[in-house]
Amino acid sequence: MTFWQRQALAHRVRAIPLERVLPLCGAQPDHADRRKWHTPAGVLSVTSAKFMNWNLGVGGGGAIDLVIHLHRLDFKGAVDWLADRFPAALPLQPVMPPPARPLRLPPPAPGRLAHVCDYLVEQRRLPRVLLEPLLAAGTLYADARANAVFLLRDDQSRPVGAELRGTTAASWRGLAPGSQKDLGCFAIPAEPRPSVVLCESAIDAMSCFALHPQHRCLSTAGARPNPRWLQLLLDQGCEIYCGFDADPTGDQIACAMMALHPAIKRLRPSQHDWNDVLRAQAESPSPAITLSAKQPSLPTKTHCLERRSSTPSS
Asked: Taking the domain 3-89, which CATH number applies?
């Protein structure tokens, strides 16, 4: 099933009346109040598509939320549970994604590569050894305007876009035309790992990886609370940290992300962003940063923002 078919299925099963779903969850209607249902999780008050469990002080809206609440399933499991029991909700026709602009990646310009690498190493303080596997895989290259090009890849390693970063005096950042950043991301390293840090840009992801090489660092290509590929990482059981910038936008979007996905924890850079942290360490009297097993691990949960915390902390 494609992403768009699953999205259409979720839309359909979410709209199934709760009164039809509750009996299949082992719930019994209250004889005195037709809006009350007795469930193994407590008494629910049901009003149209919304429900409230007063015993636990939690509620939700729609059939998917109800199944997640009563059966303690994840989003995908709840959708599949409903689809198995309500086959009429399955889409009859394949759902096609909306038309997208064709992806136009800038052609590589090998003659400008040395300049781009010098910029990343000398100005951004990224270890040169970190660039080598990215260059070999074609995930990082230079275009004719001396822009650093960072490929966004999907879960099949296919290019779906690119972040562009200017390396000349006219510094700028953007995306290649037709980039679909909800279909993939820039990742370092390419291989999956159980712990993931989400960063706002490719350079920040590389900087974070230089500081914490035992973790995988991904770029969301801008502060966004819910990229589509994020749910796949959650379904795989990854431990995820939101490492967005230490500024009002980064904090606000991080809080929105954690509200949508409570399993995600906040990892706030000690300076404005991860590249600032990397450059500060590189310019301090301490030994130069290297990619070694002695690098410090990420903070434990007590060092990260909890979902309800109001003041960010490192």
From this structure: 3.90.580.10
